[in-house]
Amino acid sequence: MAASWLIRLIFLAVNVLSANLLVISNSDFCASVFETKNDHVLVGHVMNTSAVADEFECHQKCLRNNSCKSFNVHPGTDNTKRVCELNNKTRQTTQDKFKKKKGSSYYGHVKATCQDLLTNKRKQTGHRHPDYRGKKFELPKKRGWNSKDPAYSCKSIRDSGDSKGDGRYWIDPENSGNPLKVYCDMTTDGGGWLLVSNITMESSTPPSQLPIKTSYRGITSDQMVLTKTAMTVLRTHLSFTQLRFHCSKNNGRKFHVTTVANSTGEAAVQYFSGQTDVQPASCGSYVRMENDNSGSAGVCQKWGLESGSFEVAKWGAGFDQERLYDHPAFARDLYHWALNHPDYSGGQAKRWECDDYLVGVNTGDFWKIYVR
């Protein structure tokens, strides 16, 4: 027994001595750690490109490829996908190929000394991420980036500094443990916008039915319009204070306004959230975004239909469940935001207008509504 313990003691001493010698003899490298650089990419060394759901999936692809030293993630044309590029070099080895690209992100290995890992200080241009867990690097743990660590809202992700740009995030406004994967606009007007209605024409043939969602959990869909009831429940759990209406037609017309943070803007939020049926005043309740070139936004005094009267300077047309998408803003015979009107029957859409008084649709036309 004594001999056995002596052998173990000698073995342990040899291993400790070997480890110390390793650090002394190779002080320039102890382990591979991980860095993230937003709005940058490595070009010229891409060996594989694929569509992924998020950064985590791209990271897993890199781990499975022995030649992968870093990867780039770009926004995709499809809101549900991102573009993953695996690189066979890092930015440290080819600094001239490291370029700025807004909206994209670079992730890569960085060599670090053991002292760096112990003191959490920089050795090279890279850094040790606080989530480092040994010789394998991990994606930084960011609120909203995966279903196990959802955020409260798009705005809370922005405010906490965990934004990765426009794209899909996980939120759990009810704190129920049943999160939603939603689309967040993190760039427009400071970011933090949750997409709650989205119709985007993928062809010049409109769908036979609108994708009407009666539950706010329908915001996980690519195409959706919410009913008043869905919006009411959403605001019960998510204390948003602004709405943003953004539609665009291929003829160049864009209607893009955001409700303001005052009592007039709040009245509009309450109306479209179903907390009141009183149609709110239009003038003074919104501001025009930079790319707005609509006729609608310039004639707020001509908006609305109330009790059979037009041009009442109010939002909406008095509709109930359809108020968010069927004429939320319009001036009679001039400018209309209109889906599903006038022949509303079982979800059948007959009119597709965005500001201009045109029924036809084109590929790329869209109607989007956000809350923040």
UniProtKB/TrEMBL annotation:
Signal peptide start and end residues: 1-18
Fibrinogen C-terminal domain sequence ranges: 145-198
Pfam families reported for this sequence: COLFI, PAN_1
Alphabetized UniProt keyword annotations: Collagen, Disulfide bond, Secreted, Signal
InterPro entries tied to this protein: Fib_collagen_C (IPR000885), Fibrinogen-like_C (IPR036056), Fibrinogen_a/b/g_C_dom (IPR002181), Pan_app (IPR003609)
Domain Apple: 30-114
Listed CDD domains: PAN_AP_HGF
SUPFAM superfamilies: Fibrinogen C-terminal domain-like, Hairpin loop containing domain-like
Gene3D superfamilies linked to this entry: 2.60.120.1000, Hepatocyte Growth Factor
Subcellular location as annotated: Secreted
Family matches, as NCBIfam families: GGGWT_bact
Protein name: Fibrinogen C-terminal domain-containing protein
Species the sequence originates in: Porites lobata
